[in-house]
Amino acid sequence: MANKMNGFPNDFLWGGAIAANQTEGAYLEDGKGLTTVDLLPIGEKRFPIMLGKLPSFSPLEGEFYPSHEAIDFYHRYKEDIALFAEMGFKTLRLSISWARIFPNGDDEEPNEAGLKFYDDLFDELRKYDIEPLVTLAHFDVPVHLVEAYGSWRNRKLVSLFEKYSRTVFTRFKDKVKYWLTFNEINMLLHLPYVGAGLVFEEGENEQLVKYQAAHHQLVASALAVKAGHEIIPDVQIGCMLAAGMTYPYTSNPDDVYDAMSKDRESFFFIDVQSRGEYPGYAKRFFEENNIELEMEKGDEEVLKNHTVDYIGFSYYSSRVTSTDPKVQENTTSGNVFGSITNPYLEKSEWGWTIDPKGLRITANQLYDRYQKPLFIVENGLGAVDEPNADGEVIDEYRIEYLREHINEMREVINDGVDLIGYTSWGPIDIVSASTGEMKKRYGYIYVDRDNAGNGTLNRSKKKSFHWYKKVIESNGENL
Questions:
Q1: Catalytic residue among 79, 378, 400, 411, which?
Q2: Has 378 been annotated as catalytic?
Q3: Spatial CB neighbours of 85, under 8 Å, sequence gap ≥ 6
Q4: pLDDT digits (tens, 9 = 90+) for 287-315
Q5: For the chain, domain boundaries
Q6: How far apart are CA 56 and CA 28, in angstroms?
Q7: Topology of domain 13-473, per CATH?
Q8: Helix H segments across 292-351?
């Protein structure tokens, strides 16, 4: 049977992705409440807080918190959206800050000023025919919910999140068609404070707490899907995975099984959100590790009946695993996911493996597993960008990274995978989620801001800006 390889479909959604807590700033403006990310300083205390090991319920004196001003997208979004439109964006992925809508998380009534901000933001996108792709929870929980209830360890958050979801679905039902529930939901296992606002107590069974919180998020996600389908005509609601294949270091069956187990650790979440039930391997894991989840009557039916419409995922790098202790000594740094150094691949300045072919492998693996449309909602290169004497950033290294990954996306589509779109991470320079740095830049647009918060915040176009514009104009043909 003849099969003509056409590459990207005409309705392919090209764009970029940002998050409220890394861009907006205005962290207590217009009634917004404090969120968990607002308590992540840059520096040595950041990582212990992210792991849930260092309780923090208010900003500390002498610490710099990058999210408090970020890149001031809250006041500059019209300028930034105009630049995205100039590049030809078909979509912009962004998130709503839960604490802008319900400042404490458990308020009786929503904050109108917060709702109006997103109303105006979505109107601005629509002015340029840019489709909003909106994440309900992108690494932020109202701090009051952490203090009062222990965050997602507490069942109470399920109903509070459902109320928040129904509130924004009802308000924006005519403006937003594409939604995601939880950003990189599997990050809960690796950075539990970031992923779920978890702070651990001395001697606590941390594994049990994490998976109980995961169950609550999975039920909340399913209830959000239910609400969205009830409220918004033709809605598309997806889940979101921090993805990336795990390769076995050798053909030793122990290495192969370990790689499969590492992948399953992440697939667990999407198995539930997409298939609607806990997989057998997870049930065995719970039994062998004395993890007994508290479930309410009806939870299994909710999970089964309200699965997602598509699978969103981030892809930055692949990983390698080995069961050989000597090989394990050669581990890369920089990425939240530990990995053995892959001798066949180069690394970024932050130690992230650069593996374009891994994107094709990962996408095929996800599509084979779930048979649902995929959406690549994060991908990009974090690098130090130095303006030249003329103030220009000639970021050929970023263009090369993106070119290779987009080439593999074309192969993904030719493989028969239903791929909705591509939103590269950080189309404008933003605060790094992992390190809090500004010098780790992903954008096509340079923002004059340094790690200490100095700079004018002025925007300027990098070389990659003009390159990505041509990519979109040509629907991926001109790379």
A1: 378
A2: yes
A3: 128, 130
A4: 999 999 999 999 999 999 999 999 999 99
A5: 13-473
A6: 17
A7: TIM Barrel (3.20.20)
A8: 299-305, 325-328
